[in-house]
Amino acid sequence: MANLTVRMLDDELLHKLRIRATSNGRSMEEEARIILTDVLEDDSDERGLATEIHELFAPIGGLELDIPPRDEMVTIPNLLK
Description:
The protein is an all-alpha fold.
């Protein structure tokens, strides 16, 4: 296994890491490993929100919506005259 040293961490970021690690019952080092693993493993699956929603509801079936035609743009009155 390799080691990684992170220099010049912002004090606020370090504080947040310490709080998060404590609340999860882990060391800061373990918490940082878990965060890196989660972020980097999730990065390989770059599906968008619409895809996620579609896959969630696809087993239920779909429906077709009638989209009404657009009306002409309303002219906004100039109240500064």
